């Protein structure tokens, strides 16, 4: 065996080890990085869509001329159109869920409160004062409802 054959064998061994290292260590890292970047883009698109949905849902929520189903369908359509303007394609189920989430956030922050009037309340004595503490929070005007205490 000549010196040339020994060097060639060592180079093949190094090359084989390098290929093995690349296929088992480097390629998965690169794939994970690409998946992470894709997930980050999807999260950014969903965040942008949620912000658009908040702006679309509020005017529809206060519109008394439309039913709830019509409002939801119109909001989904408007949001899909707005996202298409920016080249963002999200599944319809995701768009619908974002519209619902925007509406729930709107309700949680004090918007679109449905008050049920109880006819039995007409006979209630209104001279009693209710002691409700100020529950104003510092996060954008959200008011937490008073805590029910059965011992009072």
Explain this structure to me?
The chain has 152 residues and is mainly alpha-helical. The protein is 62% helix and 0% strand. It contains 3 helices and no strands. The chain has helices spanning 3-61, 68-85, 92-108. Helix 1 (3-61) packs across helix 2, helix 1 crosses helix 3 (92-108) and helix 2 crosses helix 3.
Describe the secondary-structure layout.
Layout: H1 3-61, H2 68-85, H3 92-108
What is the global morphology?
A: elongated
Portion of residues in helices?
A: 55-70%
Q: Which residue ranges are poorly predicted, with pLDDT under 50 across at least 5 consecutive positions?
A: 115-121, 126-138
Strands, count: 0
User: Main sheet, how many strands, which sense, barrel?
Assistant: none
Distance between the termini: 99 Å
Report the C-alpha radius of gyration, rounded: 30 Å
Q: Kindly state the mean pLDDT as a whole number?
A: 78
Q: From N to C, what is the helix and strand string?
A: HHH
Tell me briefly what this model is.
With 152 residues, the protein is mostly helical. The chain contains 3 helices and no strands.
List keywords for this structure.
152 residues, mainly alpha, 3 helices
């Amino acid at each position: 065996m000549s010196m040339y054959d020994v060097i060639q064998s060592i180079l093949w061994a190094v090359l084989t080890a390098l290929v093995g290292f690349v296929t088992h260590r480097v390629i998965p890292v690169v794939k994970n990085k690409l998946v992470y970047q894709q997930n980050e883009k999807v999260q950014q698109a969903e965040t942008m869509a949620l912000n658009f949905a908040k702006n679309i849902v509020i005017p529809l929520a206060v519109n008394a001329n439309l039913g709830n189903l019509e409002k939801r369908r119109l909001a989904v359509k408007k949001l899909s159109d707005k996202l298409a303007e920016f080249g963002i394609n999200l599944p319809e189920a995701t768009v619908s869920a974002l519209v619902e989430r925007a509406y729930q956030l709107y309700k949680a922050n004090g918007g679109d409160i449905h008050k049920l009037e109880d006819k039995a309340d007409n006979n209630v004595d209104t001279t009693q004062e209710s002691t409700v503490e100020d529950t104003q929070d510092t996060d954008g005007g959200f008011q937490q409802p008073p805590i029910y205490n059965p011992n009072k």
